[in-house]
Amino acid sequence: MLLILGIFNYIKNNTMKKLICIATFILGLANSDYIYSQPSIPIDQWEGKSILLIGAHPDDDYQSHGTLALLNENNNKIFILTLTTGNVGTKDPKMSKNNLSKIRRQEQIDAMKVIGLSEERYINLGYDDGRVEFADKEEIIGKIVYHIRKIKPDVLISFDPGYNYQVWHKSDHRAAAYLTADAVRAAEWRLMYEGQVIHQNLNAYRVPEFLFYGGNIKDKNTEVNIAEYLDKKILSGSKYLSQWSSGWNKYLGSDISKYPIGEKESVFKRLKERIKYNNDLPVERFRYYKGIPDGMGREKRD
User: Fold this and answer.
1) Contact indicator for 213, 274 with CB cutoff of 8 Å
2) Which of 72, 101, 106, 225 is least surrounded by CB atoms within 10 angstroms?
3) In Å, how far are 64, 235, 268 from 115, measured between CA atoms?
4) Mean pLDDT of the chain, nearest integer
């Protein structure tokens, strides 16, 4: 009998200890930033949101095409803003900047159509490829602020400027990350770029939620299962022939059948190899943040 009572008390005491530990852990999470690291509603359940993706080049948004296809199907309103025309990205010695600019615009529009987005949702600020960080930064920020205030995105998607430190990106990507971060902050203050408020009937606007792409793996805290949209993503990627085919060295037009034998298979194979997987499911990963713009790149401080 005593043995039975001893066993019962041991189980009871240890169970209480476990419950106390679990409760302490949950309370710790409630008082930390961790609870805010995931959207309250999973991304694949978002509906009726206005979403603005900002990139440096036509094709930067491809990293998120599976997610964008899903969000578009869920009746979210998506806009893509690109800082440059992409008019330098080629090794074809016969290609001119003017022609490449036109080619990459059409590639972008064709890729967007695959995932359900119309040309009317595409905005290009027209800066030269490779030279964004040498352009007038105040002018660029003002243009981004204008579109933020006009579109009023519930979610802004951009290159990750970094979390507790600045993330290294190549030139235009680096500039796009930091200029976008600065524009988001400026957009919420009515006395910044006040001409937009006074003369263009826009209002100051604070973006509430963010998805950052292109950052370090360890900083990413959410992912989207794109299994149902994988084929669309790969097909949209195949539209960028000036970038991801032998057209990089010798552009032969937008019809892949005009390229050497095996080109289509090669392009699709390359695109499939770039897909990220988690537990055998294709995913796109992001750093999610919700809060004031000043806190988008850091933990809470004293």
Assistant:
1) no
2) 106
3) 11, 9, 16
4) 90
Nearby residues of 235 by Cβ (< 8 Å), 6 or more positions away = 114
Q: Could you give all domains of the chain from N- to C-terminal order, each with its CATH number?
A: 47-295 (3.40.50.10320)
Residue pair 84/111 in contact (Cβ under 8 Å)? The answer is no
Contact call for residues 86 and 100 (beta carbons, < 8 A): yes
- Rounded CA-CA distance 302/155 in Å is 28
212 contacts 289 by C-beta, under 8 angstroms = yes
- The pLDDT tens digits for 256-294 are 999 999 999 999 999 999 999 999 999 999 999 999 888
Q: Strand (E) positions, the chain?
A: 50-55, 77-84, 122-127, 155-159, 209-213, 222-225, 276-278, 281-290
Please give the average per-residue pLDDT across 92-97, as a whole number: 98
pLDDT of residue 294: 87
Query: Model-level pTM?
Result: 0.87
**Among positive and negative, which fits the CA dihedral 227, 229, 231, 236?**
negative
**Contact by Cβ (8 Å): 58, 109:** no
